[in-house]
Amino acid sequence: AAQFADEFNLQTSRRRAPADQHKSELKTDDVSGQIDLVRSAADRIGRDPADVAFSMSALIGVGDQAEAALDPVNFGSQAFDGATFSGSPAQLVNEFGPYAELGISRVYVRAPADMSGLMKNFELFASDVLPQLAAL
Prior knowledge:
It is a single chain. This protein is of the alpha/beta class. It is built from four helices and four strands; from the N terminus they run βαβαβαβα. Strands 1, 2, 3 and 4 form a four-stranded parallel sheet that branches. Helix 1 links the parallel strand 1 and strand 2. The longest helix has 16 residues, at 29-44. The chain starts with 6 loop residues before the first strand and ends with a helix.
């Protein structure tokens, strides 16, 4: 990754995370260590560590009311085990903060196969969350 990659996509898994960090392993020293390892290796070979972007995948649920953000009708069939962000727009912005601090600059948003019931969810994400994240 340090030599050839433009991007390093970190694998997230709630099963491997400690109980107090059940949403994602990205809050653990293990993943922070992976980022440091890639950056150190890039530096050792004379590559600017900033040339490697770090990313992750996440299931996103956003709603005007935090309780309705992950509607089980639309998300219940998901077999995704990785990071899950859900809540109001303000809650999502707050949840992304620690990931940005670790150096995650790109998130691939996971969505269910049937998007028809989630249009308002993603419209709210685009209008109320993304502009705030762009400012981080």
